C-alpha cells in the first residue's frame, strides 16, 4: 500500500484589528479547502468573529511548512513584540515560504526579514520597507504581488488570487483542472464572505470567474452584508465590503460557463422573484453542470423548482423553502456541514467554506497536489 503524502501545514499570525478579508476567510479558508492544514494563533479578531485554533506560546515553528501574515492594524503592534519577531525569523532564516500582505510587511521589516529582498506592500509602507533595506517594488495596482525566493508579498486583499496562488507554488503545490469558467449570481446585500471567499479561492486556482447581477453591468458594485453568529437567537447583520461585478447580466450566455455559484445573505430573497434569474438557474441545473449554493442561496433554488428529489442543506431558517419545493432536508449539524447530491453542492453558512469549496472542486475535477 502506498504511503499517503504528508499534509502541508501553515501558520497564520493573527492579532486584534487585522484586516478581515486578509486573515480569516480568504487565505485561511481557501488553504483549508485546498487540503492544507492551517493553524491561526495569537489573538482574536474583529469583523466576523474568528476562532483561533492554536496557542501562541505552544507554537513550534519546525512543525510548519510556511507562514502567512495578514495586514490591517495588528502589524503595527505585533512588530513591537519580540516573541513575534523571533517566530518570524524561525521561518525566514531557514527559507520557509512566507506570505505577507498589506501592512503585514511591518512585521517583516522589524524582524529584518526583507533586507536585500524584493517586496511590495500597501503604498504607505514604502518608507519603512526602504529603511529596512528592502528593494521596494511599486504596486502598479492594489492587486499587485511580488515574489523573491521564498517570500511572497502583496499590496492588499484585491490581490488575493495571485497572492494565494504564488504561496501555494512556494509550498510546492500544483493545480490540475484549472481551465474552468465559473459564474457567480450576485445581488445587493449578499453575504460578504459567501461571495468573496469562493470567488477569490477559485480565481487562485486559475479559474475564469465572473460575477453578474440583474439590472447591473460589469464594473458596477453590489453592497454586501456581514452575517455573524454572536450568541443571539439569529445572526447579526452589519455592512460589508462593496463587491465589483465583472460581467453584464443582460445577454449572458450560460452555455459558456462550466458551473454556477449562488452566495447567501439578503440578496436571494429578491433574486428569487426575478424570472430571468429562474431561467438562468434552470439552465445550469437541467444541463447537469455543477451548482454550489450556500446559506440563503437555496431560496433561489427552491423558487426555481430545481430541488425536487434533491438532498440538500441550507441555513436552518430556509428549511421550509427546501421542504415545500420537494427537496429532502439534511440537517446542518454542525453549521459547517456541506453536502453533495449529483451536480449540487449545498452549505449552511460561511463557516463551512472549506468543505463547500472542496466539494465544489471535486465536481469541477480540480485538485491541488502537494509536494513532499
Give the CA-based shape: elongated
Question: Radius of gyration from the CA trace?
Answer: 21 Å
What is the number of beta strands? 23
- Helix amount: 25-40%
What's the mean pLDDT score? 92
Widest beta sheet: strand line-up: 2-1-3-4-8-7
Helices, by number, come to: 12
Q: For the terminal residues, how far apart are their CA atoms? A: 18 Å
Beta-strand percent range: 15-25%
Parts with pLDDT < 50 across at least 5 consecutive residues: 43-47
Structural class: alpha/beta
Major sheet summary line: 6 strands, mixed
Pfam family, one: DJ-1_PfpI
InterPro entries: C56_PfpI-like, Class_I_gatase-like, DJ-1/PfpI
Protein name: DJ-1/PfpI domain-containing protein
Family: Belongs to the peptidase C56 family.
Care to describe what's here?
By secondary structure, the protein is an alpha/beta fold. It has twelve helices and 23 strands. The strands form seven sheets. The protein has a six-stranded mixed beta sheet with strand order 2-1-3-4-8-7, sandwiched between helices. It has a six-stranded mixed beta sheet with strand order 12-10-17-18-22-21, with helices on both faces. Strand 21 (338-341) and strand 22 form a beta hairpin. The radius of gyration is 21 Å and the shape is elongated.
Write the layout of secondary structure elements.
Blueprint: E1 9-13, H1 20-33, E2 37-41, E3 66-69, H2 74-78, H3 82-92, E4 98-101, H4 105-110, E5 118-119, H5 126-131, E6 135-136, E7 145-148, E8 151-154, H6 160-170, E9 173-176, E10 181-185, E11 190-191, H7 192-204, E12 208-212, E13 221-222, E14 224-228, E15 236-239, E16 243-244, E17 259-262, H8 267-271, H9 275-286, E18 291-294, H10 298-303, E19 311-312, H11 319-324, E20 328-329, E21 338-341, E22 344-347, H12 353-363, E23 367-370
Parallel strand pairs: 1-2, 1-3, 3-4, 4-8, 5-6, 10-12, 10-17, 11-14, 17-18, 18-22, 19-20
Antiparallel strand pairs: 7-8, 9-23, 13-16, 14-15, 21-22
Helix pairs in contact: 1-7, 1-12, 6-7
Protein name: DJ-1/PfpI domain-containing protein
Domain DJ-1/PfpI: 8-169, 180-361
Family: Belongs to the peptidase C56 family.
